[in-house]
Amino acid sequence: MNDVEELKRFVIVHARAQDLPADLYEGVLDRIRHDGEGEGSWAAEWSAAARTLEDAGDPLAACRCFTIARFPFVDGLPRRTAMRDAWRVFETWRGADIGVLDLEGRLRCWTSGLSREEPRPLLVVMGGIVSTKEQWAPLLLQADALGMAMLVTEMPGIGHNTLPYDKASPGMLPAILDALADQASVGDTYAVANSFSGHMALRAAVSDRRIRGVITNGAPVHDFFTDPDWLRALPQITRATLAHLTGTTPDDLPDVLGDWALTPDELSTLEIPVSYTVSLRDEITPPSEIAHLRKHVKELWVKEFDDVHASPAHLDETRAWLLESLLRMRTPS
């Protein structure tokens, strides 16, 4: 069972990022007293808010609340039910412009802007270890404005993604590009990959030259994986989520993750721009990670905020930096 106060602290950035009104999410958080079942519980109160929004004819906001009800991961019936309800109301919201890509029944993605007749450059969007693809799906409506094909997905072990989260997980991204090769210009692919998915995108880019740029926020790179003391000192919610996704225990994380680090040689092979947002008070990603990137990545663009992980107090600035980075990557120098 999760620590409720920690859940409340970490979920605020997700509520803000999904544009939920402050009075809504603060009201729900005030009603939550425990992480069990029934009235006053995390899943029950967020699900109740979601049903109210659904009844009011706002399926997107309802989906966002159901998604938070399953936060940080599905660990029993209440959160499993919330996840399924999020999928249900999302289907009510999404229109014909948002398509579906299923890979062998093990990975589902939402898509837009795909075309066999006029394939566009591809933008892949993925959240971190506590994010579902539905959180990012509204971005798909910007495909035409960007002149790109778009795909949102989620990390292994989250939502519809039943792939294992292990050292081989970055191979998921080349598999997605292979599947879209006849509907997008996958040789001109860019990834917006937050936190732990940023690590996956960087590792995939080392060997897959179709990825032409990576934009990430607080991605673990090297020291996160190789420093046992740092792993043991992580917030409980992060340790529990990583243990759940990797099929291990929090105490065994140093043994499981120890060889996932990107080496200096691997980082040095990147011939693409990497845009990296640093939170100076990050409690999840070691502050030393940016030093590895500055030393070994040839083209690195850095934005710093005096904030905690994901810079929740600077979401507007982060969004602006993301768009600026994407446009800069796509503009020939």
Describe the structure.
An 8-stranded mixed beta sheet has the order 1-2-4-3-5-6-7-8, with helices on both faces. The radius of gyration is 19 Å and the shape is globular. It has 16 helices and 8 strands. Helix 3 runs parallel beside helix 5. It has 333 residues and is an alpha/beta fold. The longest helix has 17 residues, at 77-93.
Explain the layout of strands and helices:
Blueprint: H1 4-17, H2 22-31, H3 42-55, H4 59-69, H5 77-93, E1 99-103, E2 107-112, E3 121-126, H6 133-136, H7 143-146, E4 149-153, H8 172-179, E5 185-193, H9 196-207, E6 211-217, H10 223-226, H11 228-232, H12 236-246, H13 253-257, H14 264-268, E7 273-279, H15 289-296, E8 299-305, H16 315-330
Parallel strand pairs: 3-4, 3-5, 5-6, 6-7, 7-8
Antiparallel strand pairs: 1-2, 2-4
